[in-house]
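Example record used in the benchmark description.
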Amino acid sequence: MENKEMYADAGEFYDVMAGNLWQRRKGFLKALSGLADVEGAVLDIGSGTGHGLVAVGRVLPDVEMFAIEPSPTMRAVLVSRIMQTEGLQKRTTVIPSTFEDADLPEKVRAVLFLACIGLMDDAVRRNFWGRLAKHMSPGGLVLFDVMMIDKPQPVEKIHVAEVPMGRNVYHAWSEGVPLDEQREKWVSTYQIVRDGKVVLESHAEYTWQTVSLKDVAREAAPHGFEFEPVNDDTLIPSGILRKLPA
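Model output (structure tokens):
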């Protein structure tokens, strides 16, 4: 995974902009609720600040969870959220490494692969499906999403969020620049505004492999994963890969 610490200057804006996303992931939550009888742990790849762990913890109250998060900025909030959420501390292990370097649990019933699948190099991502298949229980799920563009293209700067907090208003803008036939550079601008004045501005850049839902489904299919679309109210293309019996 590249840009391991791309949140260094923008981490404080992460929860403000994305903190309530799981409230709209009803399709994912319904799918997770059906895994009570499937064997194994839950693996959260690119766990961020831990909202996915909290959501899984509510739906599957006894499951063991592993959170892979290479960013120290994100892990600081992640560990704090685990410590402050009842029931998570004893059953959640944080893995401070990259996706490709992390050891997988012996048995896996679900994988959260959200907001980060395009940060992986193609070879690393493609190799992962065969590796995961050896650990995935029949009936287990991979929950994943991709960008709204499936090929590099110019994306004009758009205002993606405006969130009030006390006397401040948090803003976020995003624009995309194609780098080659497969990669898109995303440039994010964040501001804290009070009384019409900018009191803080931060920027972040990262490179995204523009894979589509169909691309991921096609990569995973030879390893025994069946694709299912998800229609959540998030405007984010999302899908499920279900592990078929051997």
